[in-house]
Every structure is written in C-alpha cells, then in structure tokens.
Design goal:
It catalyses: C-terminal L-alpha-aminoacyl-L-glutamyl-L-glutamyl-[tubulin] + H2O = C-terminal L-alpha-aminoacyl-L-glutamyl-[tubulin] + L-glutamate. GO terms for molecular function: metallocarboxypeptidase activity; zinc ion binding. InterPro entries: ARM-like, ARM-type_fold, Cytosolic_carboxypeptidase, Pepdidase_M14_N, Peptidase_M14. Among the domains are: about 130 residues, Leucine-rich Repeat Variant (Alpha Horseshoe); about 160 residues, Leucine-rich Repeat Variant (Alpha Horseshoe), CATH 1.25.10.10; about 230 residues, Immunoglobulin-like; about 280 residues, Aminopeptidase. Helices cover about 40% and strands about 10% of the residues. The protein is built from 45 helices and 27 strands. The strands form seven sheets. It has a seven-stranded mixed beta sheet with strand order 14-15-17-16-18-20-19, with helices on both faces. A six-stranded mixed beta sheet has the order 3-5-6-8-12-11. A hairpin with a 2-residue loop joins strand 1 and strand 2. Helix 31 crosses helix 37. The protein is globular, with a radius of gyration of 35 Å. The N terminus and C terminus are likely disordered.
C-alpha cells in the first residue's frame, strides 16, 4: 500500500517539481548514498547468512554432485541468481563472499566441475565463475565512489583469476570443453560460451597456459572453434585472446600453422571489418605473433593478408581514438615481419603499399605517440625498395690468417652443447646477445631463422638434460699437474714448494714434476718488493712445449724495453706504439692518445632531442631511397689505401705525431674534409660526400668479420670555421642506441689543445638514430644510421671524432711504465709481467698489487681478488674505470694501504688486445666473442682467456684458495648509470642450483656498498639471474666452475646517468676513473663488514643486518676519508632524530660536539629484483645497519622503494628508433 501511494504522489507532482527532482546536486547524491548505506546495513547480516548457508551446502554437495541431484542444482541456481541480481548491493555482497579465499568457494566450484556430469549444473557454475572474473559494472550516484568501486572490483576480479589459475581451472575447463564438442544442444552452446569467456581471461594470466594445452593435446581444439565461430560476435573475442596466447609459444604456433590457421585468420579478418575496436586490435596482435614464423609468413602472403592490412592504412584517417594508434602499431609490426621474406616485400609493393605508407608518413600527426609508427614505416619502405648494398665489400679489409688447430674448443666437432655450437667461430654472435655488456638489451639483429632458433631453444630449456648440458660445456677440465706451471705468477707467496705447503696439497707429486726452485730467493724477492727471473727449468704447461704462456726470462715486458726512465711521457708513448703489432699498418699515433686522452673534466649535460629534426631526417632518408643523391664522391677509402702487403703486419718504424704542424694549413686543391683512421683503435672505412657539407661514413667491421659496427674513431681536417658539417654513419647494426636518449659523440681539437685547453668534449646537434635503406648481407634487414651535425670552432684544424673516450693498448703499457717507476720503493708491491702473447704476438700484461710481506702481515694470509677488463674492445669506458681502480690501489692514502694489506690483487687490464689495437667493436682476430669462451677456452685461439682462467684455477685447485672476489669490467651501450650483474642460485635457470640453499649476503654485499660509495651506481638495475646461454661468460663460469660466490660483471654506461647526483649528465673520464676508485672504497668497506651479516626475516620482508663498517674499537687515525672526499652515505642521528651526511673526517667513529660517542648507525636501502620477467615483481629489501632501526627512525630519503621492477628511463622506448 505504501509503495502504491508513493507512486501516485510522484505522478501527481507538477512538471517543474519533477524536473528539479531528477537533477540532484552532488551533495544530495552523497546524502542519498549515505542513506542507502545505512538502510543496507540492516540487511547485510541477513545476506551474509544466506550466502554462508549456500556456500555450506555447496561444499557439502561439491564432492558428490550426482548424489545430490536437484538439491545441488537448486543451490547453484540460487548462487547464480545472487551474482546476477539486478540489485547492486545483493550482487556485490555475493561476489565479495565468493572472492574471499577463506570461503573456499572457488575450490568447491572446480571440484564440482571435475565430478559433475550434469551440463545444467556445469552451466550454472560456469556462469557464476564468469561473473566472478568479469563482473558487471556498477552504476553509483556518486562519481568518486563509483570510480573507487570500479577499481576495487577490477582488482578483485584479477585476484579471482589468479586464484582460479592456481587451483587448476585451466585443465578442468579445457577437458570439459573437449567433451562438449561431441554434442550439440542449446545448453552446450551456452556452456561453451561461458567456458571460452573464462578461458579468455585465464589465458592472459596463466603463464603456463600454452604448455598445459600441449600436454592436453588441445591446441587444435581452439583452432577448430575459431574456424566454426569466426563470425560469432559473442565468443570471437575470447577465442582470439586464447589464440594470441598460444601464438606466443613456438610449439603451439607451429602446431596452429600446420593446422591451417592462416586461412581462418583471413576469413576472421574479413568478418571483423576495419572499424577500430577490440576484436580488430586483438586479431592484428595475433598476426604480429604468427608472423614471427617464416612458414606462416609465406602462407599469410598467399591468402592475401597484405591486401587486408593495407586497407587499414587506406582508411586510417576515418578512425579516431587511442585504439587507432594500437591497431596501426600492431599492423606495422606484422608488415615488418612480412618484409623479411621476398614474397612479403613483393606483396607490399604490388598492393600499392609503398605509396600508401609514404602518404601516411607525410600526413602523420605531429603527436609524439606517432614517432614510433613513423620510424617503423620508414624501415618497412627502406626494406621494400630495390636492394641497395653498401659500396664496400662485405668482409673487413683487415684480415688475419689464423693458426691451425686439431679441434676447436666449443665447436660442433668437439661435441659441445647447443649454446657452445651457437657461439662457434662460424656463428659467433648470431643467436645470442650478451646481456652483460654493450649488445645487451636489443634482440640480436639476425634473420627470422635465427629468431625462431632462439625461441625454440628457450622453449626447450625446461626439457634440457642438465647433466648432458654441463658435460658438453665443460669438456676440458685441467688437473693440478696441468696448472702447476702458473706458480711463477704467484712468486709473492714463495716458491712452488712453499705454495704447495701452504695449500696443504697432496695431489701434486713434486718428485714427478722435476721442478728445482730456490725458495730463499723467492722469499727474499717478495720481502724487498723486487722481482726476480723465474726458474728456467719450467718450460711446460698442459703437456705442451713453447706455449704462449710466458715463462722464464720472457716474463719481462719487452715492449717497454725501448722506454727508458729518461723519456718524456709522449716519447715513451711513441716508443711503445711503434712496437705494437697490428693487422693493418699504422701511419701515425693519434694526438689525443699521445697527450693522455682525458676528457675536458667539465659537467656536460645530455642532449635534448629535436623530434622535428629527426622526423625530417627520416623522411629525407626515405626520399633518398626512392631517388639516389646526385652528389656522391668518395673522399676516403681504407680498402684502396691498404694493399695486400700491408694487411699482415708492417715494417718496424718509429711512429710519431705532427698534427700541431698541420693546423692552420689548408689543402689547396679541395674544400672537402680530409679523413684518416690508420692509427691505433681507429675505425673508419669509407667517407662519401653526398652534399656540400654532408658525408656518409662507413665503419670497418671487426677483423675477419663482416659485422659488428658501432665503434668509430677517426681524424678529420681541412674544415671551415663555424660551418655545420653533417656526418651520417650508415652501417650501424643495433636496433637502438643511446644517441636517441641524450648521448653525444666526442670531439678532440688539436688547436684547442695547443691553446692549453686539451681534452675530449661532447659535441653535435640534430643527433638521431634511425633505420636506412642499405641491406645487411644475408640478414633480411637494413642497417641503421647515426646522424649528427658538428660545427668546428677553428678553420683548418685537425680534429678527432669518436664514439667514446679511446683507451689504447699503447696507453695501457705507457701507464704501466709510469706506475712501475712510481712504485720503485718498497711501500707497494707492484709487479707487471707478461702472462702470454696474443695471436699476433703482442704481450698481454698481468699485474700484481699488494703490500710487501712482513711477519705481522704475511702475504699468504691475504685473500686474492681478480679483476679483468676490456674483453670487448669497443668498451673503452671499462678501461677508464680500470685505470681509476689501478690508480686508487697504488695510492698512498689509508684505505689503499689497508686494501693492499688485506688482499693480493691479480689484474688483467686488457683481455682483448688485438681487438683494441685494430679498432674492433666486439671481437678480436677470431671473429668470435671472447666473453663466450670462458667455460672452455681454446689454448691456441683464446690464449689470454685460457691463461687468465688458468691463474684463477691455480688459486682454486692448487692453492685451495678460490678468489675472494672476481669482477669483469664492461661497458653498456643501451642503459645509463653503473650497475652490477651477479650470480645467485635462486635466480638460476638450473633446477639443481635452485634446490641448494642460497646465500644472498655474499652476492648482495658489494652492490650495496657500491651504492653507498658511488654517485653513478644504480642498485635497481642490478641483476643476479643466471641464464643458460650465459654459462660461458666470465661471470657465470667463474661462479660455477671455481666456486666464487662474489663473481660480477660491472657495467658502465657509454652515455651518462639518469639518477643520483649525476642525473642528466654525461659520464666523463674523470667520472669513470672515480667509479674505479669508488669500487676500491666498496672493497675496503666490505672487509669490515665481514661474513657476519645475517638474513633476518621480518614481518614485512627479508633484511640483511649486522654490518660492522665502523668498528668503534679501531683507533681513528685521523680519517680513512682524508682523500676520499666523503662517502655518499647517510648517518641517522638518534640523539637528534634526523639524518645527515656521513662525516668526512672519519669513516669509523662518530662523536658529539661534547666528545661523547653519538648513538648513530648507517642506513642504506637496497631494492634488487632478479630479472626473470616483467611479471615477476618480487623485490628484496636490504638494510645494512649496525643496529636495526624502527620504521619511523628511517629517513624518508633512505627508505626502500616500493616493490616494483625499476628500469631505465628508456626501457619503454626500446623499439623507438627516432
């Protein structure tokens, strides 16, 4: 009665009153919502009681639904009615109850689906689960509350999907779906629709969905459903979502292609149409994944998919909204994949594709979001144009005849594993890129076949027999008898008998070895800090004679024999450089290297990219592809300058530099720039003038190679002052570059140096990196261009341009010459000797640094630290960091003395001398990556790697003292900042590793301390994952084979920093050397931390505690940090309840102004995520402290970051090529 009267009252209201009543204010809406909540509070208990009763009956009947019969159906019908109720409050409360994990509802539904044979009941369960994971949108009268409810509902539904996946819903639903295919009723059709809707959501959350489909042999079932329902709007979208997930898996992809899915996709495309909506986007995303398969590309071209894709670009102007951008992006990805095959390129051209895409370029909106599309379109056009090759031979003009060997280590003939075969000399670098170094972040620019090989290898990784794999990797383990010859490089420990006695080794029989040593002489040489000639009886290592391992009198560095102590630094450099053996003859020494090669020492900001300029250069590149430039004149040609007689060695003559005499003098017969690169580490193959002041430059590939172009270093002269010159390096290979994210090339002016302002400076404007039209041989893709414009300040100057600050082999040997003179006293034990000779006969130095022996601090009680650098010759920043480390270790300050007192440093500062000398970027003389040879190096082809590893093996196996720390210095071309890669068992690909207990303290301590000491270091970028294809790198091989827990790769950016005090700045040589010094500080702090760090699990997250960096019992001695310029750490002052910078006066004690000890502790946070995948977002929080502070005592700036994966600022722009 009351309801009827209210209805009549509303009908009798005047129109004005009705109109006013229908437009409530925000305050009225809020009041209404509040009243509804109050009114509903009374019904909540009743609803919960009903829900609890229904769930209790559900749990009772779920195990045996057949016995319950109609009662079970009734319970399900009531639950389904509640979750689909038109009453919002009833529906939301019912869903909230089902979402609760402790309710057990989801588990009961899955058990019922497994046991129930009644399709009507199954239909109810599927409908309920569908509502749980895709709830209806609730309409709230309050906008704010509505948005909050919507967000909460989405979160709950996502958690419900994850809960279902964990409970095994995938297998249950797929089995039920297969059974439904044998009957055709209305109930089955509804049940199939609900099951597919659920699986469409589950497939996106279940990381093992494709593997489960393979085990259930049900991949083809979904293709059959798509073939049957390609025009059914109700189930098409979930089917496409499932197909998209399957297409990401190589096995499922191949199965679907063989099953003829290409024709089905074409019919689906026609049915879906061209209007921008979710179905079209998902379908084209499926095509993007399918076209990663070469066979599928051919089939899609035959069914006419290119024509359909082109129609998208015919009509794209009619579309609007963000969906249009995503559809175009996926379509271009698909076309990029189709361009790899000849039929795909032909189809694009025959369907008027080039004209349509070029029109898209010219009419492309100015929004930044379209820059990526523009870059991809230009790449497609360049690939589809007539084949245009570089005007140079494919192979490098630098060719070296390799010595013969019976069987190559890690070759296919030696029976090695898949990864080793992939890294053999014939295919080095084709399949895998090095995530620990400069080639890391992008997928290797290889053919489609290579990409498929990688996918298949990754897919097969779970099925690898680990025993066979490791047996294939480690094929030549060396015995103690083989390693004993390395004892001469440990003369600081005494003679061979003394070393074996200290090690307690009983495996080596001294009488059988026949070595005669004068232990007294060895001991005396170590005490006085002087070296002596090693025994002449030792002429055998590993059972062979005349090895490249240097023995007896050849330990001395012969290259320094001409550099007497009376020479100036420049004279010594010329004397050393003249004895360097190169593949191509040199004509001079470069002026920057001759004068020291440092940067200018100024803070130089990163470049700000001009998007309009980059767009213009892209379009100009495309236009040149259509119409070749009229002006093309070769002004420098290395192939013509290098005759066959000069390719192998050169006559011995004194190299010099006369650039100062050349400045100000013009070449009379031409206004063209003059180029030269025939000097150490130089790299320029050809220069072609294409405009008045524009030049295309072609880089030289690595020796005996046809690829690996990145490093450049050349001289340019005969320029006009204040005139812009544009340089286009047209044969770059990497998919992206830091030149797109702020990096500038460097310039050295001889005139500026003569005026007293020497040093490299960052230079260039209009810098961009984009794909061009030059075809890469046998790769199916085109090269990329680095373009920049330089304005020279002086007319007729002699200048040098380089990718990064060069550091040559001659510079290293000259620095060793200087350090040896400096350390002639007995306060530092410094020994530089020849470890071995390279393939071309250059000496490879190994350095030993420690304090002289003493009774109070004997050398044999010290731990050994191994440092290596420059295995990739193009990573010159690694040498500058090593330079800083060496200078810090040879310093006289307190922390350097303390380091030498506690450790023996064995350092191989340049692992790839031949690559550095000959201007290579990645390889040496063997056309292979030496950082893929550590698991099984070849004695003939990889002598430096072989003997460097031999030194560490001697420590671990003969001396029974594995290195305490091993760090391999690298440079990184795709990331900013400085960071470490380490090894952890928990992050290993090997199941055997993961079963062993991990010790995070060991590998987390040094990164934490680096964050404390170095402003350029970025902890969130550190990774401790061990991947299968990295087993042969130095970091992993030393960790696994020698048991060195603290085995790292230290990466330094070529560009600069995007965090910390150096954010927005390039890294200069001073910064790089400071990183080396900061590393030494971290080592000095690590020794005070000791091994007493413990992992304590708190309620929130694990924390590493109990760091003893400051030992109060140790006397101050007036500062470790007198010359360290302060540590970048914070000390929290409990007395004052605030944080303050760490005191610079002393690193070990803190006192108040009144002189009493202050209650302080150091606070640092570490947020490290092992890089498994983007979905794996668990992180570790590490707090190093003497005492555990409470949360409110931790300064805000020192608190841990949220649990998320931190990536570089350009991580989202990895495919952005403008």
């Amino acid at each position: 009665m009351r309801g009827a009267s209210e209805k009549r009252d509303k009908e009798n209201q005047r129109p004005m009153a009705t109109a006013q009543a229908t437009v409530p204010t925000d305050e009225d809406a809020a009041d209404v919502v509040q009243q509804e909540d109050v009114m509903s509070a009374g019904n909540r208990n009743a609803d919960e009681a009903v829900s609890d009763a229904l769930l209790e009956k559900l749990r009772t009947h779920a195990a045996k639904p057949q016995e319950a019969g109609d009662a079970f159906r009734a319970v399900l019908a009531k639950i389904h009615a509640r979750v689909t109720s038109s009453d919002r409050r009833v529906r939301e409360r019912a869903l909230e109850k089902l979402w609760q994990k402790n309710s057990g509802a989801m588990e009961s539904f899955i058990v019922a689906l497994e046991n129930c044979k009644d399709h009507v009941a199954d239909c109810s369960i599927a409908g309920i689960l569908h509502e749980c994971i895709s709830p209806r949108a609730s309409r709230s009268k309050s906008k704010k509350k509505g948005s909050k409810n919507k967000s909460a509902t989405r979160t709950s539904s996502r958690m419900a999907v994850i809960q279902l996946v964990n409970l095994g819903i995938t297998q249950v639903l797929v089995k039920l779906l297969i059974n439904l295919q044998h009957a055709d009723t209305i109930t089955n059709e509804m049940l199939t629709q609900d099951i597919l809707c659920i699986l469409g959501q589950v497939a996106q959350r279940d990381q093992k969905f494709a593997s489960k489909m393979k085990l259930l042999n049900s991949v083809k079932v979904f293709h059959a459903l798509l073939r049957q329902h390609y025009n059914n709007n109700k189930i098409l979208l979930p089917l496409l979502l499932i197909i998209k997930t399957l297409a990401k898996n190589p096995f499922s992809l191949q199965t679907l292609v063989r099953d003829g899915i290409t024709g089905t996709l074409e019919k689906t495309f026609i049915s879906v149409g061209y209007a921008p909506h979710l179905k079209l986007r998902t379908l084209i995303e499926c095509l993007k994944h399918f076209t990663t398969n070469k066979l599928c590309c051919n089939k899609l071209v035959k069914v006419g998919i290119v024509h359909l894709l082109m129609r998208i670009f015919e009509r794209w102007e009619r579309f609007d909204g963000p969906m249009r951008l995503k559809i175009c992006n996926y379509a271009l990805n698909t076309l990029q994949h189709l361009c790899v095959i000849k039929a795909g390129r032909k189809a694009i051209k025959s369907n008027n594709g080039l004209q349509l895409l070029y029109r898209f370029c010219t009419n492309c909106p100015e929004d930044k979001a379209y820059d990526c599309l523009l870059s991809r379109i230009c790449g497609i056009i360049n690939q589809c144009l007539e084949k245009k090759e570089l005007p140079v031979p494919e192979m490098s003009p630098a060719r070296f005849v390799l010595p013969e060997a019976n069987v190559r280590a890690n070759s296919a003939e030696s029976g090695s594993d898949i990864d080793s075969q992939a890294n053999s000399m014939a295919s080095a670098g084709r399949l895998y890129s090095d995530l620990d170094s400069g080639d890391d972040e992008e997928e290797e620019e290889g053919s489609h076949d290579s990409r498929n090989a990688i996918d298949n290898a990754i897919y097969m990784s779970d099925e690898v027999d680990e025993g066979k794999f490791f047996a294939g990797v480690f094929t030549s383990q060396r015995s103690e008898e083989d390693l004993v010859g390395y004892h001469t490089f440990f003369r600081e420990l005494g003679g061979l008998r003394s070393q074996l006695r200290l090690a307690g080794s009983s495996a080596v029989k001294l009488t059988e070895l026949g070595f005669i040593e004068d232990e007294q002489a060895d001991s005396q040489s170590v005490k006085t800090g002087k070296s002596r000639t090693p025994p002449k009886d030792l002429t055998r290592v590993n059972g062979t004679t005349k090895q490249q391992l240097v023995t007896n009198d050849r330990h001395r560095l012969k290259i320094l024999e001409d550099a007497s102590g009376e020479l100036t630094d420049q004279e010594a450099y010329c004397a050393v450089a003249s004895r360097v053996r190169s593949v191509i003859g040199f004509v001079k020494v470069a002026y920057p290297d001759w004068t020291g090669g440092d940067g200018c020492g100024k803070a130089e900001p990163l470049n700000t990219k001009d998007r309009k300029v980059c767009r213009a250069k892209l379009l100009t590149c495309v236009e040149r592809g259509f119409h070749s430039s009229a002006v093309q004149e070769v002004v420098y040609d290395l192939d013509a300058l290098v005759g066959p007689a000069c390719r192998q060695g050169r006559d011995a003559r004194l190299l010099d530099n006369c650039d100062e005499k050349r400045i100000g003098k013009r070449v009379l017969d031409t206004k063209q720039l003059q180029f030269e690169s025939r000097f150490e580490s130089g790299n320029l193959r050809k220069a072609i003038q294409i405009g008045l002041r524009e030049y295309d430059l072609i880089l030289t590939p690595d020796v005996n190679s046809g690829s690996r172009h990145q490093w450049f270093y050349f001289e340019v002269s005969n320029m006009e002052a204040n005139a812009p010159y544009t340089f286009n390096i047209v044969n770059c290979e990497k998919a992206n570059s830091q030149f797109n994210f702020g990096m500038k090339p460097i310039l050295f002016s001889v005139t500026e140096a003569k005026y007293g302002r020497p040093g490299w400076v960052r230079t260039g404007v209009d810098i961009c990196y984009y794909r061009n039209c030059y075809q890469r041989p046998a790769r199916g893709k085109t090269y990329l261009t680095t373009s920049f414009t330089v304005t020279f300040p002086h007319a007729h100057d002699v200048c040098y341009l380089a990718y990064h600050f060069p550091y040559t082999y001659s510079q290293l040997m000259t620095d060793i010459w200087k350090w040896r003179k400096k350390c002639a006293n007995a306060s530092v034990y410094f020994r530089a000797e020849t470890l071995c000779e390279t393939l071309n006969g250059n000496e490879n130095p190994v350095l030993t640094i420690t304090s002289p022996d003493s009774r109070g601090n004997p050398i044999h009680a010290r731990k050994v630290i191994f440092l290596t650098s420059r295995v990739h010759p193009g990573e010159s920043n690694a040498s500058w960091v090593m330079h800083g480390t060496l200078k810090a270790l040879l310093n006289d300050n307190q922390y350097a003395c303390s380091l030498r007192d506690d450790y023996v440093f064995k350092i191989v500062p340049m692992l790839n001398i031949e690559g550095v000398v000959n201007g290579c970027n990645r390889y040496g003389l063997t056309n292979e990556d030496l950082n893929r040879r550590w698991s099984n190096p070849n004695q003939v082809y990889h002598p430096v790697i072989y003997h460097t590893k031999g030194l560490m093996e001697y420590c671990a196996k003969v001396l029974q003292r594995p290195p305490h720390v091993f760090v391999d210095y690298h440079g990184h071309s795709r990331r900013k900042n400085v960071f470490l890669f380490g090894c952890s068992r928990s992050g290993s690909w090997s199941a055997a590793d993961r079963t062993k207990p991990d010790q995070p303290v060991q590998y987390l301590m040094l990164p934490h301390l680096m964050q404390k000491t170095s402003a350029a270091f970025a902890l969130p970028l550190c990774s401790f994952k061990v991947e299968r294809n990295k087993e042969s790198t130095a970091r992993v091989a030393v960790w696994r084979q020698l048991g060195v827990a603290r085995s790292y790769t230290m990466e330094s950016s070529f560009c600069g920093c995007d965090q910390g005090a150096l954010a927005g700045l390039h890294l200069d040589t001073e910064h790089l050397k400071a990183i080396g010094r900061d590393f030494c500080r971290a080592l000095s702090m690590m020794k005070y931390s000791g091994d007493d760090w413990a992992v304590e699990k708190s309620a929130m997250r694990p924390a590493i505690i109990s760091e003893e960096i400051r030992r109060r019992s140790r006397p101050c001695g007036n500062s470790i940090a007198e010359k360290s310029r302060g540590l970048n750490s914070y000390i929290y002052d409990v007395d004052r309840r605030r944080s303050r910078p760490a005191a610079r006066e002393c690193a070990f004690c803190e006192t108040t102004p009144q002189g009493r000890p202050r209650n302080v502790f150091r606070i640092n946070t570490l947020c490290i995520t092992p890089r498994r995948s983007h979905s794996d977002r668990d992180s570790r929080r590490v707090i190093a402290s003497q005492r555990i502070p409470t949360e409110e005592h931790i300064p805000e700036e020192s608190r841990c970051m949220d649990d998320r994966v931190s990536t570089s600022s350009e991580s989202d722009e990895s495919e952005y090529e403008i």
